Amino acid sequence: MSEPYDFIFRSIDGGALPFRAWRGKPVLVVNTASYCAFTPQYAGLQKLWERNRQRGLVVLGVPSNDFGEQEPGSAAEIEAFCKTRYGVDFPLAEKCRVTGPHCHPFYRWIEETIGEAAAPRWNFHKILIAPDGLPAGLWPSEIDPCDPAIAAEIEQLLPSR
Q1: Phi and psi dihedrals of 123, rounded to 5?
Q2: Distance separating alpha carbons of residues 133 and 129, to the nearest angstrom
Q3: How far apart are CA 86 and CA 27, in angstroms?
Q4: Catalytic site residue from 36, 96, 103, 146
Q5: Predicted confidence (pLDDT) per residue in 91-124, tens digit
Q6: How far apart are CA 126 and CA 28, in angstroms?
Q7: Distance of CA 140 to CAs 28, 80, 115, 126, Å?
Q8: DSSP string, 62-120
Q9: Higher pLDDT residue, 29 or 161?
Q10: What angle do CA 10, 130, 43 make, to 5 degrees?
Q11: Any catalytic annotation for residue 82?
Q12: Is there a contact between 31 and 140 (Cβ–Cβ < 8 Å)?
């Protein structure tokens, strides 16, 4: 059986983002889109990242055009939008599929591991992976990344201050 450390995302600038680089850290994986009603959640994701990255949290944005074709831009356009509009400096993957038979293997794995509820139904679906590589939480698009339930789950996975 696979684990998240078996997967590699491509970064938005073309490099590799091997999940194994984050072994031992909680990772919040969020499929994103620039032209969605939930796009302002980038601000909350950036806030989570800034507040917790020194303690080990990784936020990974995964741009996808799967829902409503709300991420039509090139990698350079997506990256520029995220940086200039929301000050994003957490890791961004290259645009990829997050649903269907040709989705990124991570998304296939999470659905096989947890079940249908793990599959994104829209942009800004959040998946929390614990430091041991096991899924620790799922939140749908409408749940803000700064929601107390997400913050509490992340806090449990981070080392004490």
Answers
A1: -65, 150
A2: 6
A3: 20
A4: 36
A5: 999 999 999 999 999 999 999 999 999 999 999 9
A6: 7
A7: 13, 26, 14, 6
A8: EE--TTTT---S-HHHHHHHHHHHH---S-BBPP---SSTTS-HHHHHHHHHH-GGGS-
A9: 29
A10: 60
A11: no
A12: no
Q: What angle do CA 53, 58, 60 make, to 5 degrees?
A: 135
pLDDT at 1 (0 to 100): 57
pLDDT value for 104: 97
Q: How many whole angstroms separate alpha carbon 90 and alpha carbon 6?
A: 21
The residue among 105, 108, 113 whose CA lies nearest residue 18 is: 105
What domains appear along the chain, each with residue ranges and CATH number? 4-130 (3.40.30.10)
Residue-averaged pLDDT of the chain? 96
Give 129's strand partners: 27, 135
Predicted local distance difference test score (pLDDT) of residue 17:
97
H or E, element range at 126: strand 126-129
Res 160: pLDDT: 81
Q: What is the pLDDT of residues 113-159, one digit of tens each?
A: 999 999 999 999 999 999 999 999 999 999 999 999 999 999 999 98
Partnered with residue 58 across adjacent β-strands are 27
Return the pLDDT at 2. Answer: 80
